[in-house]
Structures are given as structure tokens and as C-alpha cells.
Amino acid sequence: ATCGHGCKYGECMGPNKCKCFPGFTGKTCNQDLNECGLKPRPCEHRCMNTHGSYKCYCLNGYMLMPDGTCASSRTCAMVNCQYGCEEVKGQVQCLCPSGGLQLGPNGRTCIDIDECSTGKAVCSYNRRCVNTFGSFYCKCQLGYELKYTSGRYNCVDVNECVTNTHRCNLHAECLNTEGSFQCKCKQGYRGSGFDCA
Q1: pLDDT in tens, 160-173
Q2: What pTM, to 2 d.p., does this model score?
Q3: Major place of localization (predicted)?
């Protein structure tokens, strides 16, 4: 089976037919499936979509059970947690619905961890880190775009001269460079390439 467009988060099953891994969707399995929008809903109270998965959490005063349901809890109600709580050895602890969130100084609300600035996030050399609430993702560096080449997805240089996204002067030539471009005034003109006289 060959899939010319590739299957980003899935397997090629037939001519251009992808079978997506759980949590992903689309013709090339390149889109995250929002499980929170599915019917029946996967969580009893609140649902947070994550890349390729989801997390359940409960309203204040409820405790998250192992099966994703929420049980009423007087102790949780007293602690006043933002995202529900759990009891560990008789001790009540507030929960955060994602590993990219941490309990704030008050021990009740969750604050975002910026994985990009803390160095927790590792993106390959030609990708940059983008922080999101509770998580992060890796995006191609500026001047590059995600393309399916030689059997996998890669960040490939954008040829600004061909895509016409350069800002070169009418009397200048556009020269593509790795991740960028340059402008050079044509013969008989002088200037920066963005301005030619």
C-alpha cells in the first residue's frame, strides 16, 4: 500500500487510505481529534482536549474517579479546588488536568508551565517551540513549511521568490536562501533591493 501524501499519525492501509492512531483524524491523520466534542461525552463534568488525547476534570466539590466520573465530596468542597481534587492517604490534594499545568501558590488554582522557556520542551533543530495553556507544540521555523517528502514529514525551506511572498522592489531580483530570501537591485539600479533607484 502506498500513500503518496503520507499518514502523519497513522498507518497506510491501502492506496491513499490511512488508518489513524487513536486521537487523530483527517485524510492524512494529521489533525488532532477533539474527543471533548464526541457524543457520548467522554467526561462527566469538564473535558480538556490535548494533542492526541484528552483529560477529564471535575467541578469544585467533586472528586475525579478512576473511570472518569465525578463523585461528590464534602472534603473537596471545603478545599475549594479549581479543577476538582483527589484524596491521598486521607489528605485532600487539588488536581491539575494536564502535566503542563502546576498548582499555584495557593494550592487550589492551576497555572501554566511555559515548557518553551523552561527547556522542558525538546523540538528538533529546525522547529520552534510554541507554548499553549497546559502544553506546547513544535512548529517549523519561520521561512520553512511542513511538507511530506521521501516518506516522512519535514520542515522544508519556503522559496519566497516562487511563492511571491518576498518584498523585493519592482527593479530588483529575488534570490532564495535557506529559510529566507535576499533582494538585489537589477543592473542600472542602486539600493538595498527593497528600494532601488
Answers
A1: 898 887 889 989 99
A2: 0.51
A3: secreted
